[in-house]
Write a structure and sequence with these properties.
Protein name: Low molecular weight phosphotyrosine protein phosphatase
Helix content: 40-55%
Strand order of the largest sheet: 1-2
Number of helices: 5
Keywords: Cytoplasm, Hydrolase, Protein phosphatase
Strand content: 5-15%
CATH class: Alpha Beta
Catalytic activity: a phosphate monoester + H2O = an alcohol + phosphate; O-phospho-L-tyrosyl-[protein] + H2O = L-tyrosyl-[protein] + phosphate
Radius of gyration: 14 Å
Pfam families: LMWPc
CATH architecture: 3-Layer(aba) Sandwich
Largest sheet: 2 strands, parallel
Order of helices and strands: HHHEHEH
Oligomer: single chain
Shape: globular
Family: Belongs to the low molecular weight phosphotyrosine protein phosphatase family.
């Protein structure tokens, strides 16, 4: 989960989906990404995010959506990108009866200990590549820990 669901979280979703597919674990995982805000609902990921993913042989058909109460009741894990997202998600989860999702920073799984995945929106292609690399490290470690 990220603020707008057009940069970091779609990259993380696509990376994780590819890892799960490569490991032939699709039947064990339901993967999605969402935003804490409604700013970009219905929009495709940022063109730089799509370009970065394509450079790594990953395609996505994701469209931005806002997180729902059902997400907190359905998903086992909700991973987010920074402290602001974490605060917003914890606040939202407190309003949900039967919240089963464990909410945490994706960066807690980073073997290089980079806790925060910075928003590359105001940056350049290199910043999107940094997000991709962080997401790849974190998603691999999360997947290894989770199965």
């Amino acid at each position: 989960v990220s603020i707008g669901n057009i940069c970091r979280s779609p990259i993380a979703e696509a990376v994780f989906r590819k890892l799960v597919t490569d490991e032939k674990l699709e039947h064990k995982w339901r993967t999605d990404s969402a935003a804490v805000s409604d700013w970009n609902v219905g929009r495709f990921p940022d063109s730089r995010a799509l370009s970065c993913l394509r450079n790594h042989g990953i395609e996505t058909a994701h469209k931005a959506r806002q997180i729902t109460k059902e997400d907190f009741q359905t998903f086992d894990h909700i991973l987010c990108m920074d402290e602001s997202n974490l605060r917003d998600l914890n606040r939202k989860s407190n309003q949900v009866k039967d919240c089963k999702a464990k909410i945490e920073l994706l960066g807690t799984y980073d073997p290089q200990k980079q806790l925060i995945i910075e928003d590359p929106y105001y940056g350049n292609e290199k910043d999107f590549e940094t997000v991709y690399e962080q997401c790849l490290r974190c998603c691999k470690a999360f997947l290894e820990k989770s199965h």
